[in-house]
Transcriptional regulator, MarR family (Beutenbergia cavernae), 151 residues
Amino acid sequence: MARRPVLSDSERETWTTYITAATRLQRAIDVDLQSRSGISASEFEILSSLWDAAEHRLRISELAARIDWERSRVSHLVKRMSGRGLLELASCDEDGRGTWVLLTREGRLVLLRALRGHVEFLRQSFFDSVEPDQREALTAVSRRILDAVEP
């Protein structure tokens, strides 16, 4: 028997609740980071990725792959952040074609200042709303969804 081409009431409720919560949480994270730290959630993601990388540097293509963005989007934001002194761009000595993105001292300071408020916000808006056993279930469901949509 073929599936119906429309969502059931239960499916629609699940989907709508999930997508609304995810969208509002992401928007609230962005607003909180902007107001507390003066950086966007996108900038925070780039700074965090570089912080986690060996020698606090990645090629633009590696950074794009790590955060699952288009290379052009990463390049555009990296140039803006470089202009603000948060990042530095350097040629790759190995092949001369690539560009390294390096976390500057100022970028590290901005990230570290942002982290305390960001963790506090995540605890208040997300983790305090989800019981430990629910976190495990949410993690398992999220992994299954990621597996289903991975190329």
Remarks:
- The chain has a mean pLDDT of 93.
- The two ends are 28 Å apart (CA to CA).
